[in-house]
């Protein structure tokens, strides 16, 4: 990828010549325009690239229509919703577009994608817009702090993105089974071990699973009092600080060896085994409730278990939206910001949170009568349990270095979990193997 963005820098020099004759600004400094443009003289049309399908796409298209007929109509902005396929397809197409000088004005992006896109010099820092007296976001502090922190984790603490579709992890459990067998919903990992042993004794099958081996490692390292990485690209579970990682892997190995826990494995997600009564509880995304809502038993939703109250940690997930200035006029950049602002506004977020499986990004939305009524009607408890954990939210730091990226670290630690479960590798060796991959 380093070679890709080296070519991008060279390409930027070529496209600058084209831009001079077209009146467009290639903008290759990851900054907003020198003179902030906050009005549009002639109507502009921009594209919003995304990976939302099904009901999520319907919600996105509705938001685009709402924007175009309100804010857009007032300011002379038309947004076109462009579905680019699954997330991997969106990433591939956006990377190719940056390479060819044809990036969209605004796109959905995971934080680690943003870290990579920053290498192109085409990402807009939104701070000047956010803080502007005329077009800024006056209620910016209403956005949940963990989401603001995630979007400003990059160099200089600047906002190179704004939050969009967000989720977290919750504990799903077979409420019918638990009640019939007099079982208590676990709140600590000691309790998870104890109730898992009881369930396996009753069913002869594993009791518990986790959707994501990567999330298990990242979360449990912090719950055991350790650290994972930071946005500078430092590995913080290295040799001298590996104890928390070793404890996390030991916990997993002990319970899988006993037959109490299992990995998703070929099922990919635990929702399938859960629906088939192959496990009675699992940790998965709050956005995945729709996959188990039709279960033949009552589904319970609870906060994820913790090691202790002092080290509570719950990962927050999902994409943000990023604005590009590659071959864009200042007016097009401003138009993209206005749409990003709309998506993160109270009105936009309330609509999205009540028409998709994703969580609110604003406290005012969570507290609103409209949202509470929606939760009651939908009976989707992830919409309450998910946000209730926000004081413990943390984000997976995103970075892109000459040696490795946050994606590479995430892959390596997921493999460490699989190694101790599937191959009997010691936790100490699994941690060392992960570190060796990143040298």
From TrEMBL:
Keywords: Periplasm, Signal, Transport. It is found in: Cell envelope. GO terms for biological process: transmembrane transport. The keyword Transport applies. CDD domains: PBP2_UgpB. It holds the Pfam family SBP_bac_8. GO terms for cellular component: cell envelope. It comes from the Bacteria. InterPro entries: Bact_solute-bd_prot1 (IPR050490), SBP (IPR006059), SBP_1_CS (IPR006061). Residues 1-19 form the signal peptide. Belongs to the bacterial solute-binding protein 1 family. This is Extracellular solute-binding protein.
């Amino acid at each position: 990828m380093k070679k890709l963005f080296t070519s991008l820098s060279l390409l930027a020099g070529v496209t600058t010549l084209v831009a001079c004759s077209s009146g467009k600004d290639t903008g290759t400094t990851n900054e907003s325009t020198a003179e902030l443009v906050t009005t549009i003289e002639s109507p502009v049309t921009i594209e919003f690239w995304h990976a939302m399908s099904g009901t999520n796409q319907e919600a996105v298209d509705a938001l685009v229509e709402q924007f175009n007929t309100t804010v857009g109509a007032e300011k002379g902005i038309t947004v076109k919703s462009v579905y680019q396929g699954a997330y991997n397809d969106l990433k591939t197409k956006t990377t190719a577009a940056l390479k060819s000088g044809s990036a969209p004005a605004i796109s959905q992006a995971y934080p680690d994608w943003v870290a990579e896109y920053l290498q192109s010099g085409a990402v807009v820092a939104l701070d000047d817009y956010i803080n502007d007296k005329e077009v800024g976001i006056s209620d910016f502090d209403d956005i949940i702090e963990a989401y603001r922190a995630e979007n400003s984790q990059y160099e200089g603490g600047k906002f190179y993105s704004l939050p969009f579709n967000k989720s977290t992890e919750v504990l799903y459990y077979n409420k019918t089974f638990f009640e019939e067998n007099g079982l208590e919903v676990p709140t600590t990992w000691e309790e998870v071990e104890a109730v898992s042993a009881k369930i396996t004794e009753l069913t002869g099958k594993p009791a518990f699973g986790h959707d994501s081996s990567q999330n298990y490692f990242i979360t449990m390292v912090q719950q055991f009092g350790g650290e994972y990485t930071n946005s500078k690209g430092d590995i913080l579970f290295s040799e001298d600080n590996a104890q928390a990682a070793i404890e996390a892997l030991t916990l997993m190995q002990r319970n899988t060896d006993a037959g109490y826990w299992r990995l998703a494995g070929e099922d990919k997600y635990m929702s399938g085994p859960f629906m088939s009564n192959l496990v009675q509880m699992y940790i998965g995304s709050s956005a995945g409730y729709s996959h188990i809502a039709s279960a033949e038993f009552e589904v319970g939703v609870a906060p994820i278990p913790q090691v202790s109250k002092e080290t509570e940690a719950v990962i927050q997930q999902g994409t943000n939206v990023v604005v590009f200035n590659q071959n864009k006029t200042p007016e097009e950049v401003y138009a993209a910001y206005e749409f990003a602002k709309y998506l993160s506004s109270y009105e936009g977020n309330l609509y999205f949170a009540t028409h998709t499986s994703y969580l609110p990004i604003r406290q005012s939305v969570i507290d609103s009568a409209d949202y509470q009524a929606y939760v009651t009607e939908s009976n989707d408890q992830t919409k309450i349990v998910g946000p209730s954990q926000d004081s413990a939210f943390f984000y997976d730091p995103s970075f892109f270095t000459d040696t490795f990226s946050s994606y590479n670290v995430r892959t390596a630690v997921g493999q460490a979990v699989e190694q101790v479960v599937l191959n009997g590798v010691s936790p100490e060796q699994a941690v060392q193997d992960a570190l060796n991959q990143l040298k």
